[in-house]
Amino acid sequence: MNTRAVESDLQYVKGLVEKAGQSGLPGSICLLWALIVPIGFGLADFAPHATGWFWMIAGPLGGILSGLLGRRAGLRIGQMDREEGVRHVLHWGGMLTVILLSIALAVLGHVEGPVLGGIILLIVAMGWWTAGVHFDRSFLLPGGIMMAGFLAVMAGVRYAWTGTGVLIAVTLLYTALRKGAKDAALDA
Amino acid sequence: MPHSMPDGDEGLKAVLDGMNGLLMHRVRLGICVLLTRHSALSFSRLKELLEETDGSLGAQLRGLEEGGFLVSKKEFRNRRPVTWYSLTAEGRKRLEKHLEALARMIGGCEPIDRTR
Q: Which terminus of chain A, N or C, has less C-beta within 10 A?
């Protein structure tokens, strides 16, 4: 055995690791959030008093459903990633905890409802963006749209929340379709 | 030309001590490294990733299982049998030792002259 053979073997192993890491975010999770996000964001424009209640239920429930869908997708392709699952729980659970803590700003009277909405949007944007950096690049664009949406909301653009939600849903639907096509190609 | 082993008796001994015969085969090495990144992989997923035939992959997996590197678990999913493989703690330790030895082997050699 010489160094050239070792290098060749390590290149082969590196290729395998990269191939196994390409499975990424399941399309079903994108579809789920493409449904939840525009409803929740739209409520901020059309029924602001219901927005908090909606997200208090839809946020954690969507997170649990995403976990189950991720596990199901893993079982389907034959790849279990317990550590990756733990990282997701820590990431999204941390984001949810920061959101809950930020509500204290409104409870203690430091900020008013609409400003709190903007703060939460920024926290979520940061959460999605960092998920795009560490988990799957598909999270980057929705995270960026949320940042732009924050500026539109703060500038008082009419229906800024709804527009942001619809744009995010479109990017998620596109991602779901792309991943669906890729999965179908892998199945074939 | 690359050296085949690092210079010096001690360096050579350290490399040889760390090497594991079972992991000299690139498919077996690939299986073990993949299982350090994923807690469990099914037979069909390994087959898809490694692009090996059923017979060849089965033989490599059996070798690793008999060598104490892997454990397998059979279950039924949608009434179809699925075999899951995961790395044992001992297998992980031996793999780390093997990879360290490979790194030492590459690091202990003079740079390869790629212009030749």
A: C
Of B24, B26, B40, nearest to A12 by CB-CB distance is B26
* Chain A environment of B107 (Cβ under 8 Å): none
Q: Show the tokens assigned to A148.
A: 């732009």
Give B3's contacts in chain A (Cβ within 8 Å): 2-3
Residues of chain A contacting residue B38, judged by C-beta atoms under 8 Å apart: 20, 79-81
Prediction ipTM score: 0.73
Least CB–CB distance from B39: residue in A12, A21, A80 = A80
User: Are B45 and A78 inside 8 Å of each other by CB?
Assistant: yes
Going A92 to A96 to A101 to A105, the CA torsion angle's sign is positive
CA distances from A11 to A17, A131, B26, B66 (A): 10, 28, 10, 27
Average pLDDT of the residues in A72-82: 91
The answer to whether B57 touches B90, Cβ cutoff 8 Å, is no
Please tell me the distance from the alpha carbon of residue A172 to that of residue A62, in angstroms, as a whole number. Answer: 15
- C-alpha A151/C-alpha B103 separation (Å) is 50
Q: What is the pLDDT of residues A84-107, one digit of tens each?
A: 999 999 999 999 999 999 999 988
State the pairing for strand pair B70-77/A79-80: unpaired
